[in-house]
Design a protein that fits this description.
With about 400 residues, the chain is an alpha+beta fold. The protein has 16 helices and 11 strands. Helix 9 crosses helix 12.
Amino acid sequence: MPDLRGDELACAVATFDPTDLPAAFYENPYPWYRALRERAPLHHCPDGTWFLSRYADLDAIYRNRTHYSSDKRAAFGPKFGVGTPLYEHHTTSLVFNDPPLHTRVRRQIVGALTPGALKRMEPGLIELIDGLLDVIDAKGQFDNLLGVPTDERGPLRRWSLAILGALEPLLTPAQLELGQRSVAEFLDYLRILIADRRRHLRGDDDVLSRLIREESGGEPLSESELLHNCIFLLNAGHETTTNLIGNGLSLLVGHPGQCQRLRNEAGVAASAVEEILRYESPNQLGNRLVTQAVTLPCGDLPAGSYLTLCIGAANRDPAEFPDPDRFDIGRTPNRHLAFAAGAHACAGMSVARLEGQLALSRIVRRFPGLTTAGSAARSRRVRFRGFTTLPLAIE
């Protein structure tokens, strides 16, 4: 772990630029985040945006519905090109919108993910997990929120990585072209899936069927809104769940005592997932646009300021989490911001939590000899934290 001190600390803060980061940052960004929290919790980036890293500031922003906007049309127009597939997708999906669209879509999604619906999902998830564990030495996929057939998930993962990868602060022309093509291919696929689901609607615990049923209600989604929010749901599920499980396995293998506790104590699975979400947040960054001038503990922000909210830094803030660099699966309280907070808290967080709890607890119990089997490789991404390779062996 790099340990930044003295002049190095001051330099790390003064030169910090999310679009131009050293290789060591992707392996372990937390020394940089600590330096920013301590020296520049409201850091002015070279591109004119602001980078915030303290828990109290992020929590206040997430819960304030009057001074901040999630709408990113102004930011995504220059980045993707107005009217392009990536622009249309990311400006139509739930996460980058304000009411009334955000309210309409969120109400329908959350309404389909009630405690009763989650309970009905659990047997199917357990069957899927156990089936994958039967062939753990082979590759498998885990998320199936919209009822996508198992044999069709390969391209979905590829599309997901390309579309969400386009949200990174720095985007190459090749990544941009791949992202545009992936949105177009994803839309073609979903048009067929939705047409079939319209002919064969499922129960209320099926999110896609519920969204389609709402077309006959008072506030229906347009065809474009339905398509793009289906992409959002599948992508968010891939990123959150895949990285949650990968980060969790890496942490548990690296902390044998904590792994043994999860193996022995059935009741600790929920708090273990919360600590993994805090310690290695799958989603490291959020954004907001300041719509009215505001004063925060870290400083004043005029209207029009564009903010990057560093969830990964806030979740290691010692002002909120005692001994924040200690991994403790029994930590309580644990008010992390991995799923944001307030009105824009992740609509699918209950599903991600359930999948994480079932998968991780069943893996460590079934394979008590789980160990590393080579060098892991982190993805070179700032916004989403996960692995490209995490070789493990079963002894």
